[in-house]
Amino acid sequence: MNQSKTNKHLITAVLLGIIFHGTSMFFTLEKTYDALIHLFFANHYATSWFEPWNYSWYTGFTVMGYPPLVHQSIGALSSIGGLKFGLFTVALLGIILFITGVYRFTQVLIPNKKIAGFASILAVFSSSFVETLHIFGQLPSIIGIAVLMHALPDIYLWIKVGKHFHLIKGLCLLAVTVTSHHVTPIFGMVFFIFPLIGMVTMDTARERVTSSREVTFFAFAKALKKHLLRIILFGVSSLILIIGCILPYWINTKENPITQVPIPHGSRDNFLEVTSSGLVFFIIPWGILLFIMPYIFYRYYSKRLLFFGISFTLLFILGTGGTTPIPLKLLGENAFNILTLDRFTLWASIMALPVFGEFCYRFVEGDFKKYLQSKWGPYHHRIIGGILASIFIFSAIFTITLGKYRPSQPKAINMLPIINFLNEDDHDKWRYLPLGFGDQMAWLSTQTNATTVDGNYHSARRLPELTSRAVERLENSKYRGIEGIGSLQQFLTVPEKYHLKYVFSNDKFYDPLLYFTGWHRLSKLENGIMVWEKAGVTPLPTLLPKDDIPLFQKLLWGIIPMLTILCVFLIYLQSLWSKSFQSISKHIPIYFRFQPDPTKESKLLYTSSISWAFLIVGICFYGLYTFYIKNATQISPENVVKAYYDAMDYKEFERAHAYIDPTSQKNISQFMLEISVSDGLLSSYAKLDAMDITISEQTKITAKASITATWVTPLKVITTSEILDLNLIDKKWYIKPKAIDPDIPPDQFFSENSISFYNHGKRKITSGHTYHEDVLKQPVVEVLSARLLKKDSIYVIVGEIQNVDNVPADISVTGNLYTKDDISLAQFNAKDIIKHKLLPKETTPFRINFEDIAWSKNSDQKPTRFDPNAFTGVTLDEIPSTFNLQVTANVATTDLYQPVGLSMTEVSDHIVSGTLSNTSIQAATIPQLLVTYYNTTDEILWVDATYIDTSVRQQHKTLFKIDILEKAPFKVISEGLENVAVNGLPNSAIASKVIPNRKQAITDYDKIKIIHPQYAYLKIKPNVYIGNPLE
Amino acid sequence: MTLKKIHIISICLALLSISYVLVAFQKTPEAVRSIVSRLSIPKGPLFAGQEIRFKLVSDLPTTSSENGVLFIHGSYGTTLIEASIKNEEVIYIIPKTYTRRAGYLDWKHIQNGEILDRGSLYISSDTTHLGTIENYVGPRSINANLRDYSMMVSIPTDHLDNMIPDSTKVFLKTQFRDRIQNTKKLITHNIAWQRIPAPLMTGRISTGATLGTIASKERVIDIFPDIATDYTMDVTRTHSFADGNELMTFGTSQIKDQNDNIITDGTLVTFHIRDSNNRYWETTGISRNGYAFAKALHPQIPSTWTIKSSIEGIAQSEEFTITFLSVLQEIPTTLSEDGREITIGPLTSYLGQIIQDGIDVKLYIEESQEPITQLSENGIVSFSFPKEQFPEGPLQLGIETLGLTKTIKTSLN
After folding, report:
1. Partner B, chain A 955-984, Cβ-Cβ below 8 Å
2. Is B310 part of the contact surface with chain A (CB cutoff 8 Å)?
3. What order of strands is seen across the sheet that includes strand B192-197?
4. Pick from A697, A757, A919: CB nearest B295
5. DSSP letters of A762-815?
6. Which of A719, A735, A751 is where one domain is finished?
7. Closest-approach residue (CA) in chain B for A755
8. pTM for the model
9. In chain A, whose CA is at the least distance from the CA of B225?
10. Closest-CA residue to A269 (of A315, A327, A316, A335)
11. What is the Cα–Cα distance from A165 to A154, expressed in whole angstroms?
């Protein structure tokens, strides 16, 4: 009658789980990777339950790419207390389901209520569960596996006993699993249900013989034959369920196959090489289980659990990602690159819980206790127990707080100012793009009607610009090197294609890129987010296209998931009802007949377990030691240089100062002052990519380090090389500081007049359309020359444009290539090789590169190094023979200030050098030099752009050097201004009307003569990004 | 008993015959009776907003529902109207949405699919109750020259937003400085329009239109100056020495177009400078009230500058020449005893004062092409030649600063 009592362990586990997870999730869940995405989907169902099309992301996508149950549940609950209430309620349900799931699953595997109780307590603090919930936020995954575990006892009983009630109950639970997570039941079939079937068969075979030794292959086959019909019935019906319950998902997958190129994921790394991935995807989820690996394998390779042993081994190996080549071979290239492999480790660690529970039981009350106490005495037994428990609890606490120490997300952004901005004055009629928001972008999308081109569920993408790139989101593209920045550049260069007008920048890294692609700052919102705007982008049409699907699919999708929950409830009510009339003994399920054999004392197991534990401890200490040697900052010359660069890269200047020679008398205040006056692309917008340190002339107390470092910026890659002198003082290496620039500006105090512009926009305060009289005339600009060239193998359009109007202009230039039969071949905008904002009568050169969507073909070789300048030239089917050019001008009011001028420019063999001097009152943060090359007859041959790495402060100067291009094969395909239009009007009409008698000689005065076989002159025009404009 | 084919066939036949009987004895519909009816068409001129109704004169009792429908098609759209009965009269009332629109209204009287009568009415706009005048002007800014012009278009409407019939008189008015023009225009094709040639002075043209008691909103045209004409420039500087640490200002005369209008604020003016060694400088200024100023740093090398200013492709200044004098006659140098350190300086400026920090000092070792450059601090720069890099022996050094050069031989010990 032991079983009739309430299982105290289970009650303890559930209460502990609710207290531990229920409290902490309020601090962790919203900062996880996935929780906000689920919230976004939930919001979709809350607002339109039966309509699967969502316009918010990726210019529209279908939510049928993800099973809906969890999202629908949150959505349904949101009507009671809001979306977040829904999220936390579902998470709490998930926690309870998981703990009870482990309890039921353990009972089947190791039919002992005490052990199951132990396992359920362990499940509460299992580091893989903690990680999945509190770091990854994978709610559907957790609910999927939890419900699957609940289904296993019923599946066992159906196959063993054959009662239809069990089949129906098992299938109902399986349906809930299917509708909450699609991957779990598919792999759950393989890794959980197949071994379970094996175990049932084994049990049947065991029943027919007297000892487990007699269970031979033949006996097993006989047992299998007996159950075959039930197994097939179960298999077929579960297959029908998997397909039927989320039929629209499968139809959608078939009709819109995932074209996304694989996106790198840490779980596919080699954990020995990328130790951070090893920590997150191996060490943390396994945690203390690593210590008892021999026991787990020993138990799972016992005869009854043999099939679980095989499954566990497979899961363990698959979870190791790219550390060994086996997962790649097992899964095949395709599946390997689509699946995130961390789920295998999650399942393996969950599968290990029953055995872990048994281990703890034996350790606390069973034979292990006896063995250890007899060998080492009770005191040591308790100490070991204490240590194991501490490690176990510590790893749970460490995991739950990981997000605090190594934040995976930018700081929480107050979305309200952004929401207000989007709601104001119809700003939500255009698309927006958040930059540097992390997964919080999903939370922004949840709260606004405005749509974005980006999104946070990459399997649902449709734009080839995104699917062809291994970029998670545009929003964090800086972490994805060329593919990220390249993809982002494409959107920023041709924003009118996507009706993209606003960018919310939470990371100033992207600001220079925005400026040079023609965007301008609107204002800084209260939450510190900078709003960037692009002029001349048309609003979204009122009706947006969508992929409509048949009504029956919409109904299936909206009804079935909730129906599965209803079925489960009814069945449980029924079974509670019927149980209340039965005698208690009938409750005991049949698998309790297969209690584990009375444990035999196995010396081999004990010794191997203990030696394994020692081995793991040894590896841990070795790992910590190497970590220390590699990371102790001042232990060697290399380390101090590395640490110094690291500190500078992360802008931890106080730490960087700690590595400066204390005898050099550079105190922190002087050091910080020097830092504060340095600005520019290299010091403010660069991320250290790689560095190479060579130590030379090392003596006992001095050394020289020559460092070559590459820095990634949004505009180009910068390679720096410098030599640092190092000193050893008190067994610590220090860096000798470098001399500072002694240049003194001429004036202490000075003034400047400037012209500023302001555009009211709407003069009347109305949310209606802007009045006719408030719409400004588009400024008149004139294209002075335009030529279609073929240089090397790429086609470009180069030319010059002058703003001939009396108001400042913001220009965007679109080029089209045509065949001789006037068939359009390609279209693109001038990206950064142009000055977008022009004062009245100002001229800019431009170059249009015809870019294609990079690596759209699988055969394309992807570069391994980051190069923001690289672009994929468009592949043209035919040879272009003519072009047309469309220039759109809008009134500009900002970014017109010109702080720098050229000075001392001289020409030597291959180089034009000089200084840029700033005589103004604003610091020139990032100067760009637009260089135009001409031939002897004053025709443009090429336009190029160079960025200067350092800023030019007020009344200071900086050196520049331009390498003159080498001679290259060159062909003029077409030239002339016949097919050039400005604001939709022919350029020729403008040219003859505004400046009928253009004085060419005046234009020529700024040409610098060079000696070159191809080029005769060049012209240099500065274009400056001012990071902190004065108001 | 087994079911045989014959049974099935007989059941089918029975069912067929029953259904035939049912269909055959159904009541036949009454034959369509023809109706002699006539519509009384509204007479006289019709104005927008006025009620329009058709009356049916018919032999049939007025209660009959078979009066047919009136199909109408006007500038608002197309619809069908059912008859209504008022005071025992059958009438068709045209909805207000149709009668408020001026223009043709086609109608057809249809009964049982047969068109009994058809016709067309013309609804005129209600000129007794005028509404507003929509006035459009463009381009909104033009240049003060003979080539440029703008255009005003007026669209007067009645109170129901219908356009006024052609040949109605509209007064188009413009004001520029102290001249007000009032032009009478007749509406043609529903609009009245006028070209406004650009005056040769900058300013603003205000426009408006009136018709009877109604008036348009004000629309304005900005007159910007025409392109600039050539101008002069000058240079302001505090001294004429090449000390590399003083700013000078380039300024233009007031830049105007050919009609003496001052060019717009914000126009970009570039100053191009070449020195006697063909080095190039470029600095920009933006105009304010026609004047543009730009600054440049004094050179460190005595030279003569030729400056020219321009507005690209449009206007320019005469060339302007200035000369910078040397601040120093010779470079002072000191060698250390072992010959391994050379100190250059103190470099002094034109009053004998120590030159401001940041002067370039270049050192050429032997015949090397690439010099080592250092910047002066307190007028002094020093270079050292450590033993590791420079073995003992003689060494020739070339020094270049402030436009001066000096060659020194040292022997390293």
Report:
1. 955, 957
2. yes
3. B130-138, B149-158, B192-197
4. A919
5. -SS--SSPPPGGGSPPPPPEEEEEEEEEEETTEEEEEEEEEE-SSS-EEEEEEE
6. A735
7. B266
8. 0.88
9. A806
10. A327
11. 9
Per-residue pLDDT of B123-150, as tens digits, reads 999 888 899 999 999 899 999 999 999 9
- Chain A residues near residue B228 by CB distance under 8 angstroms: 841
* Residue B30 covered by a domain: no
CATH number at residue B41: 2.60.40.10
A756: which chain B residues are within 8 Å (Cβ-Cβ)?
Answer: none
- Quick one: what percent of chain A has pLDDT higher than 90? 51
**Shared domain check, A357 and A220:** yes
User: Given A744, A784, A806, which is nearest B141 (Cβ)?
Assistant: A806
The distance of A655 to chain B (nearest Cα, Å) reads 30
Q: What is the pLDDT of residues B14-41, one digit of tens each?
A: 776 666 555 554 544 443 344 455 677 7
Contact list in B for residue A776 (CB cut-off 8 A) is: 140
Q: How far is CA A300 from the centre of its chain?
A: 37
ipTM: 0.85
Gap between the Cα atoms of B153 and B189, Å rounded: 12
**Number of domains into which chain A is organized:** 4
Q: Residue A462 pLDDT > 80, yes or no?
A: no
In order of A689, A981, A994, B173, B227, the CA distances from B147 in angstroms are: 58, 20, 8, 22, 12
B13, part of any domain: no
Residues A599-617: what's their mean pLDDT?
80
- Does the CB of B313 have a partner CB in chain A at under 8 Å? yes
Are A1010 and A978 found together in one domain? yes
What is the Cα A800 distance to its own chain's centre? 40
Residue of A nearest to B249 (CA): A919
Residue A858's pLDDT band (cuts 50, 70, 90): very low
Same domain, yes or no: A150 and A35: yes
For residue A806, the chain B residues in CB contact (below 8 A) are 141, 143, 224-225, 264, 267
- Cβ atoms B247, A747 nearer than 8 A: yes
How confident is chain B (413 residues) per 10-residue block, as mean pLDDT?
65 68 48 54 83 79 68 91 82 90 90 85 89 90 94 93 91 94 93 94 95 91 95 94 92 95 95 93 95 94 94 93 93 89 90 90 83 90 85 88 90 83
What CATH number does residue B203 fall under? 2.60.40.1930
Which tokens hold the place of A81?
Answer: 């207390």
Q: Which of B139, B270, B283 sits opposite A919 (nearest CB)?
A: B283
| Residues 133-152 in B contacting A (C-alpha not used; CB under 8 Å) | 136, 138-141, 143, 147-148
Contact between A189 and A238 under an 8 Å Cβ cutoff? The reply is yes
Phi, psi of A347 (to 5 degrees): -65, -40
User: Is there a domain that residue A745 lies in?
Assistant: no
Domain extent for A402: 8-407+554-595
SS3 assignment, position B317: strand
Encoded tokens for B229: 């004409």
Q: Name the residue of chain B whose CA is nearest to A900's CA.
A: B283
Please identify among residues 183-202 of chain A the ones whose CB lies closer than 8 Å to any CB of chain B.
none
- Asked if A1020 has any chain B CB less than 8 Å from its own CB, the reply is yes
Note whether A510 and A485 are within 8 A (CB).
no
Answer whether A776 sits within 8 Å of B217, measured CB to CB: no
Q: Look at residue A370 in the predicted model and tell me its pLDDT.
A: 85
CA angle (A946, A948, A952) in 5-degree steps: 140
Q: Residue B229: what pLDDT?
A: 95
Q: Is A948:A680 a contact under the CB 8 Å cutoff?
A: yes
Domain boundary among B94, B124, B154: B124
Q: Which of B286, B299, B375 sits opposite A742 (nearest CB)?
A: B375
Instruction: Give B173's strand partners.
Output: B182, B208
**B358 contacts in chain A (CB < 8 Å):** 741-744
